[in-house]
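Following up on my earlier message about adenosine monophosphate. Here are the inputs again, as you asked, copied directly from the submission form:
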Amino acid sequence: MKILVAVKRAIDYNVKARPKADGSAVDLANVKMSMNPFDEIAVEEAIRIQEAGNASETIAVSIGPKQCQETLRTAMAMGVDRGILVETDEEIQPLAAAKVLKAVIEKEQPELVLLGKQAIDDDSNQTGQMLAALLGWPQGTFACGVALADGGLEVRREIDGGIQTVKLKLPAVVTSDLRLNEPRYVKLPNIMKAKKKPLDTLTVDELGVDVTPRLTLLKAAEPPARQGGIKVPDVATLVDKLRNEAKVI
Ligand code: AMP
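Thanks, got it. Here's what our run produced:
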């Protein structure tokens, strides 16, 4: 089985995102960028399936500017066999990402496609679902467990109030949730080895995909500053304030 994993270069999860002064977008100037954390989990899962002897090849794909090569090298240092960069300086929204991934999948013919459940920059949680719909493939989203079973996949999904288990036929799309696994640390020798792994570059035009943005960002703003709390002397005052000031009871 060949596995393809989508890895997005996103603002690092430790960085506090700030809007640009004109409020037109999040300010990414001089901001640390890393692999989207849910994609690290997806990469880890692909490697584990391969290490268990159930995958012949693992491929990471990233769509974005030249710097996405770093993201692909990280995936390769974790253990993925090779990388594909679909290089573009255009803004790539979820529908465009899904269309580009579909074109790469048609070339590469993987049986399993892993993505993160969401990218922490746009928090869209759309690409995996759109990709499965465009391909007409089954999907297991919010996965917290993936097991090969009866020539297909058994995916445990995190849903409100519990876990749902679904059986999927291959080929399939799976998106990773936080508890699927704990990604490994990348070791220095593997970073060196990753530099020698193949990294191909394609363009959006070569793939014949229209990536024109369909959504317009109207405004990026800080959340309103929170007001400080107060201490109340007793329960009666608390109830009074909840009823008459906050009007929540
Ligand atoms: P989103 O729908 O934007 O929340 O993204 C969900 C997932 O789709 C991410 O975790 C990635 O696995 C994948 N994805 C989205 N955009 C890209 C991109 N530009 N390059 C590679 N993968 C992407």
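One observation from looking it over: The mean pLDDT is 96. Hope that helps, and feel free to reply on this thread.
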